[in-house]
């Protein structure tokens, strides 16, 4: 109990309000698994935090003379807006089954960290590796995977049932084609195609950087699409509208060239025909937004564990969750003119019976109304035969 002096006047007393505010978790830290340019560098036994391209070069490049998928991905990540990533050097890449086990073991190491939200294995476009990335994202539910595209191939190989297409999943995004870039980091020899000015490389690191930049500028709810890729000169395969159409339907996001710039022209998860238990998860930003909300609530509600399961606790939790979701709604992530139209927070009686309370359970139900991207802008044009004012 605070004590006050006898002097009349206004006194200030600071009191706790109960529940701490729920703070949003990070959304843009990437994790990359692959081959370091310097083959003398030992393989990693744990993810290594990298906060700049200079740190990566000092750790993994050294006396190397040739870039790898990993080094290009890290370079692309930072050049497109990324600020922090983790790297696991496994010393190999897996375009086929030969090194898939080693790469998958590196992916497992990324699973040890809960502060990674985007995962990729640049240079490893073997389906077994892609599926392993997707499986980890689905298991942990706090990240999404960006899957490597194969070299230039027939469009039918990437459509539903195609031989070079990973399995359908709402936890991954798949982009095609690869991008052409100039010499970067350590390319001191002529690339394999004989052209020292450009080479086809995986775009996963560049795209992860775009994710981070869009998150910082607009929020995780904004689709990371219709954005140019810094450092990309062109694409390995120049797609037409006719080719893009079936790819988009089957969840393959195209990289297109508009006005001379390489642009991400798709925002879907890898699902053929949009087949999903919940159709909203056909969009990668909705999947990532849901991850963000779930993980933020998971961390923010730890204060309630072991508290008395009574009405005051429910009221405290409701205030905290509504305060957090109000911010999400005001950022434009949820659809509705008012908070009541955008979300609800309640404790359903059927899931909070006396038996549930005796078992130590308190079930909170939250309903969200996310705002999907305006993927199709439809313009209806009519030709007039009279004055426009009269019409």
Offer a concise description of the structure.
The chain has about 400 residues and is of the alpha/beta class. It has 10 helices and 13 strands.
Question: What this model shows, in words?
Answer:
With 391 residues, this protein is an alpha/beta fold. It has 2 domains: 30-286, 3-Layer(aba) Sandwich (Rossmann fold); 301-368, no CATH class. The protein has 10 helices and 13 strands. It has helices at residues 53-61, 69-79, 100-110, 127-140, 204-217, 241-249, 284-300, 311-330, 339-342, 354-358, and strands at residues 30-34, 48-50, 85-89, 118-120, 144-147, 172-176, 179-181, 199-201, 234-235, 252-258, 261-265, 343-346, 365-368. It is globular.
Keywords:
2 domains; 29% helix; three-stranded antiparallel β-sheet; Rossmann fold; eight-stranded mixed β-sheet; 391 residues; 10 helices; 13 strands
Strand order, largest beta sheet: 2-3-1-4-5-6-10-11
The CATH topology of the largest domain is given as Rossmann fold
- In helices, the fraction of residues equals 25-40%
Regions with pLDDT < 50 over 5+ consecutive residues?
none
Total DSSP helices: 10
> What is the CATH class name of the largest domain?
Alpha Beta
What is the N-to-C order of secondary-structure elements (H for helix, E for strand)?
EEHHEHEHEEEEHEHEEHHHEHE
């Amino acid at each position: 109990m605070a004590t006050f002096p006898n002097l009349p006047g206004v006194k200030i007393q600071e009191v706790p309000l109960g529940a701490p505010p729920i703070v949003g978790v990070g959304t843009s830290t990437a994790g990359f698994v692959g081959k370091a340019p310097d083959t003398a560098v030992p393989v990693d036994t744990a993810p290594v935090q990298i906060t700049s391209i200079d740190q990566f070069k000092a750790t993994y490049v050294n006396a190397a003379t040739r870039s790898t998928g990993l080094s290009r991905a890290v370079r692309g990540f930072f050049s497109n807006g990324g600020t922090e990533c983790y790297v696991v050097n496994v010393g190999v890449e897996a375009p086929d089954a030969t090194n898939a086990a080693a790469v998958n073991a590196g992916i497992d190491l990324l699973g040890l960290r809960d502060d990674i939200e985007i995962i990729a294995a640049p240079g490893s476009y073997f389906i077994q590796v892609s599926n392993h990335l997707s499986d980890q994202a689905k298991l942990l539910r706090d990240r999404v995977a960006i899957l490597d595209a194969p070299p230039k191939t027939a469009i039918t190989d990437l459509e539903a049932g195609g031989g070079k297409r990973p399995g359908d999943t709402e936890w991954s995004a798949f982009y095609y084609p690869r991008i052409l870039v100039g010499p970067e980091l350590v390319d001191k020899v002529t690339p394999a195609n004989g052209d020292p000015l450009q080479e086809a490389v995986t775009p996963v690191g560049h795209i992860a950087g775009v994710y981070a930049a869009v998150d910082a500028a607009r929020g995780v709810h904004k689709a990371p699409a219709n954005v140019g890729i810094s450092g990309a000169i062109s694409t390995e395969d120049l797609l037409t509208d006719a080719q893009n159409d079936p790819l988009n339907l089957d969840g393959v996001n195209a990289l297109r060239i508009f006005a001379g710039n390489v642009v991400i022209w798709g925002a879907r998860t890898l699902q053929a025909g949009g087949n999903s238990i919940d159709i909203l998860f056909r969009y990668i930003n909705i999947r990532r937004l849901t991850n963000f909300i779930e993980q933020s609530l998971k961390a923010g509600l730890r204060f309630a564990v072991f508290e008395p399961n009574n009405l005051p606790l429910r009221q405290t939790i409701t205030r905290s969750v509504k305060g957090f979701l109000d911010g999400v709604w005001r950022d434009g992530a949820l659809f509705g003119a008012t908070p009541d139209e955008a979300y609800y927070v309640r404790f359903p009686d059927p899931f909070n019976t006396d038996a549930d309370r005796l078992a130590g359970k308190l079930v909170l139900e939250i309903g969200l109304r996310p705002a999907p991207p305006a993927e199709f802008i439809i313009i209806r044009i009519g030709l007039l035969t009279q004055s426009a004012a009269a019409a």
